[in-house]
Write a structure and sequence with these properties.
single chain, Methane Monooxygenase Hydroxylase, Chain G, domain 1, 60s Ribosomal Protein L30, Chain: A, 4 strands, 59% helix, elongated
Length: 377
């Protein structure tokens, strides 16, 4: 009986050892040359649940800026971000100024067109409706002038941003020469240099476009101020006179030697009209009645003379009769001088620069009344 019990125990232990061996082979690969044994056959239709596999994403590791050059790159990058934001704001501001100026110009030229069309068909002198429109046009022109001032201010800020961009570029180039840099530092410096160069190109384009806008608008405002002055003369007379003489653009034409402008005025001349040197006047205005309407023929004559000779200068001569007593001659001379000053003021209102007009006076035995002669010099 004792021997039988012992045998059972041995067999049990052997089976346990065998089970351990099988389990070990299932968990660890075989190190022998024998091919691995196939696993147990699967019953058709049966499924096995695969154990989930945890996948760890690969995240690029960015080395912190531990070098002196790396810290300098970070500092320059912050300056570039500020520059980039400033350029974007200034670009938007320029577009807004252009749109605002376009609206103001539309309002101004609409008013000027309405005044000119009304004067072209004729109206009453000093028409209050036209005076009100002229005042509104003057206000609209002041708005355009304000737009030009804001454009100039923006141009100053763009120039300042361009100076900052130049500083960033120079500093970036200088940083290349610092010692103690790693390859990544130089790679970041190259990227930064390209980014700053793009901002430099945009700033140059903004400044060029803005300079063209300012020059064009400044010239337009100057011409329109003179045109408004000429338009006020037309409103005073109730008929259209024309644009400013000073703002006219003529193609220069070479004149032959001894050229003398033809007589363009339909106003009657007197024997005193011929100057001592044989010149004949361009215009003769005889003040033989009150309110002589001389401005339209005066404008036409001067305009056509400037078409023939763009750089022409003029001489305005006050002519008074020399007959009568000394008191009568003195009174006639003063009256003639006042008439010449009024004609000079009319020329200035028409836009003719006063430095191109010389004023003088004379008495003549041939003159019956006060006259003003205009000569081309």
């Amino acid at each position: 009986m004792v021997r039988a019990k012992t045998l059972v125990v041995v067999l049990t232990v052997g089976l346990g050892a065998t089970g351990c061996s099988v389990g070990s082979e299932a968990l660890w690969p075989s190190l022998s040359a024998e091919p691995p044994r196939a696993g147990p056959a699967m019953t058709p239709g049966a499924t096995t649940a695969a154990a989930p596999v945890a996948v760890t994403p690969i995240v690029p590791v960015t080395a912190p800026a531990t070098t002196v050059v790396g810290m300098k790159v970070n500092e320059l990058r912050a300056g570039h971000r500020q520059l980039q934001a400033d350029v974007g704001r200034m670009r938007e501001e320029l577009q807004g100024l252009r749109g605002q100026s376009a609206l103001h110009s539309q309002g101004y030229f609409g008013l000027v067109g309405a005044i000119s069309s009304r004067l072209a068909v004729g109206t009453t002198p000093g028409n209050p409706e036209l005076v009100a429109q002229w005042t509104a046009a003057q206000g609209a022109l002041a708005q355009i002038d304000g737009d030009v001032a804001r454009m100039n201010q923006l141009a100053t800020r763009i120039a300042g941003a361009a100076s900052l961009a130049s500083y960033l570029l120079d500093t970036t180039r200088a940083t290349y020469s610092l010692s103690g840099a790693i390859d990544e530092d130089h790679r970041q410096l190259g990227i930064l240099q390209d980014d700053v160069n793009r901002e430099v190109v945009q700033l140059e384009r903004l400044l060029r476009d803005l300079s063209e806008d300012v020059a064009r608008q400044t010239s337009s405002v100057g011409n329109e101020r003179a045109n408004l002055t000429a338009l006020s003369v037309g409103i005073k007379n109730g008929s259209l006179v024309g644009t400013s003489l000073g703002g006219r653009s003529f193609t220069p034409v070479s004149s032959p030697a001894g050229f003398a402008p033809p007589r363009l005025s339909s106003l009657p001349a007197s024997p005193a009209a011929v100057a001592a040197d044989g010149r004949r006047p361009l215009v003769v205005i005889r003040f033989d009645r009150p309110n002589v309407a001389y401005e339209e023929p005066l404008y036409s004559a001067v305009s056509r003379a400037m078409e023939r000779r763009p750089g022409a200068e003029f001489e305005l001569v006050a002519v008074s009769p020399s007959r009568g007593s000394a008191a009568q001659v003195s009174i006639a001379s003063n009256t003639s001088r006042r008439n010449a000053e009024n004609v000079l003021r009319s020329l200035a209102d028409m836009g003719l620069p006063l430095d191109r007009v010389r004023l003088s006076a004379m008495t003549s035995m041939a003159a019956d009344t006060s006259e003003v002669h205009l000569y081309v010099r």
